[in-house]
């Protein structure tokens, strides 16, 4: 299984906010993830947690572009995690080879950039926008609706010759029970034939499962829950997980690969 390391160059990401806000620290962290076995390092300059501050284009570029370039120059496979076409455009010019867009490439300009750059892409599902997505998410059939959205977007992008990953977007406009249904039925996404990427690392659903909905386990106490979900995902055919704890995730995945592979 592949591992994508999360590298947020932000002051306010829900888990690693502030840790890699300084470019030098971010570069060191990215190189460490690469050494620990990350296949991709996903560099982001804007938190998408509910209520996060908006970041303008110039500031997002200032945060991520040097980090992308320095990591790419040192042989790291870099992904850019952005919703903004202008940021994606410059990131691929500086060496990023993967665009991770949490809006599912709903902006045609983003599609054009990916096609021009011939890079890999991840289409993620989100209901609403980060500002409003957790207010009252509703689905009649969460697994069916998320799957249908992802396949429609993936078909359009793969018709243009791109390698497309699909991601159900855990925590993006979903309740705890929506998230659990999507993870229980990952095999339905895997059966579409598109490689599946899953991001559960340290997320709120793990806090709620290990604590309670009202009093979730704190972010720094979610590693075992993250690894359990990532192992479950691997056994159900997920091809890549997006994680904060690269070394631990790599070691778990290596053992499961030997047993299962
Ligand atoms: N989750 C987050 C951000 N980007 N991209 C994909 N493809 N899948 C995900 O599940 C996903 C994502 C949220 O996590 P994080 O980047 O750690 O937090 P923040 O948005 O607060 O920076």
In short:
The protein has 261 residues and is α/β, with parallel strands linked by helices.
Q: What would you say this structure looks like, in words?
A:
It is built from 10 helices and 8 strands. The protein is α/β, with parallel strands linked by helices. It has a single domain (2-260), classed as Dihydropteroate synthase-like (TIM Barrel). α1 packs across α2 (57-73). It is globular, with a radius of gyration of 17 Å. It binds 6-hydroxymethylpterin-diphosphate. Residues 6, 8, 10, 13-15, 44, 47-49, 81, 100, 102, 122, 124, 167, 169-170, 197, 199, 242 line the site of 6-hydroxymethylpterin-diphosphate (HH2).
Indicate the radius of gyration in whole angstroms: 17 Å
Query: What ligands can be seen in this structure?
Result: 6-hydroxymethylpterin-diphosphate
Which stretches are poorly predicted, pLDDT < 50 over at least 5 residues?
none
Structurally, the number of domains stands at: 1
Could you name the CATH homologous superfamily?
Dihydropteroate synthase-like
Named CATH topology: TIM Barrel
Fraction of residues in helices? 40-55%
Oligomer: single chain
The number of helices is 10
Q: State the CATH architecture.
A: Alpha-Beta Barrel
Number of DSSP strand runs: 8
Structural class: alpha/beta
Helix and strand pattern: EHEHEHEHEHEHHEHHEH
Strand order of the largest sheet: 6-5-4-3-2-1-8-7
Mean pLDDT: 96
User: What overall form do the CA principal axes indicate?
Assistant: globular
Quick one: biggest sheet?
Answer: 8 strands, parallel
Distance between the terminal alpha carbons, to the nearest Å?
10 Å
């Amino acid at each position: 299984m592949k591992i994508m390391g999360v590298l947020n160059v932000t002051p306010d990401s829900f888990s690693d906010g502030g840790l890699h806000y300084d470019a030098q620290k971010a570069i060191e962290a990215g190189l460490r993830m690469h050494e620990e076995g990350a296949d991709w390092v996903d560099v982001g300059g804007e938190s998408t947690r509910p209520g996060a501050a908006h970041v303008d284009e110039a500031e997002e570029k200032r945060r991520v572009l040097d980090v992308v370039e320095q990591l790419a120059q040192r042989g790291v496979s870099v992904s850019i995690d952005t919703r903004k076409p202008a940021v994606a455009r410059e990131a691929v010019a500086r060496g990023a080879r993967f665009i991770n867009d949490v809006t599912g490439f709903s902006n045609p300009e983003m599609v054009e950039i990916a096609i021009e750059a011939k890079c890999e892409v991840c289409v993620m599902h989100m209901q609403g926008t980060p500002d409003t997505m957790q207010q009252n998410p509703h689905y009649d059939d969460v697994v069916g609706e998320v799957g249908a959205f992802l396949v429609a977007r993936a078909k359009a992008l793969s018709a243009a010759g791109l390698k497309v990953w699909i991601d159900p977007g855990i925590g993006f406009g979903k309740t705890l029970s929506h998230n659990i249904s999507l993870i229980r039925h990952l095999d339905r996404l895997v059966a579409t034939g598109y490689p599946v990427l899953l991001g559960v690392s340290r997320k709120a659903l793990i806090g709620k499962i290990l604590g309670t909905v009202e009093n979730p386990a704190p972010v720094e106490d979610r590693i075992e829950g993250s690894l359990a979900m990532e192992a479950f995902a691997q056994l159900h055919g997920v091809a890549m997980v997006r994680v904060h704890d690269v070394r631990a995730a790599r070691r778990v995945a290596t053992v499961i690969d030997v047993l299962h592979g």
